[in-house]
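Narrative of accomplishments. A recurring question from our advisory board has been how the design workflow behaves on a single, concrete structure rather than in aggregate. To address it, we present the structure tokens for one chain from the evaluation set, followed by the sequence designed for it. No filtering or post-editing was applied between the two.
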């Protein structure tokens, strides 16, 4: 019974963490903006503002998982927790490279002290998608 409750709790937490908080149109910041980030709702637009998917990568998706330090620098390397990349190896590489470039271009993120304390070491999940029905960069803690 304890195993079932543990799995249910993990599933419930995963649903909360994967709740989409940002859509493609929400990015109002220019790429490389150093304006302080004060909430999780601002993470996606900041990182998405620098993302330029290569031509021909329609309907590709990747979800990255990473953690930040209090100062906005990344802990370790991001990990792909989901990917829908198709069969074309050059397109896969170009798509993933564009996502990583958008991520690293903004690091360290200019986060406020309070927000930095709240997210330090916590996993952040970020979806990059060129799917026609969902061109988004969603972030969740």
């Amino acid at each position: 019974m304890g195993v079932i409750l543990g799995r249910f709790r993990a599933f419930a937490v995963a649903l909360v963490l994967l709740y989409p908080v940002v859509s493609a149109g929400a990015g109002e910041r220019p790429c490389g903006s150093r304006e302080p980030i004060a909430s999780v709702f601002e993470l996606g637009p900041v990182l998405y503002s620098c993302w330029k998917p290569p031509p021909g990568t329609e309907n590709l998706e990747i979800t990255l998982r990473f953690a930040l330090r209090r100062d906005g620098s990344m802990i370790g390397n991001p990990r792909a927790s989901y990917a829908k990349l198709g069969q074309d190896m050059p397109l896969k590489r170009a798509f993933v490279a564009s996502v990583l470039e958008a991520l690293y271009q903004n690091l360290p993120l200019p986060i406020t002290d309070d927000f930095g304390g709240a997210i330090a070491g916590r996993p952040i999940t970020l979806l990059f998608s060129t799917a026609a029905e969902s061109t988004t960069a969603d972030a969740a803690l």
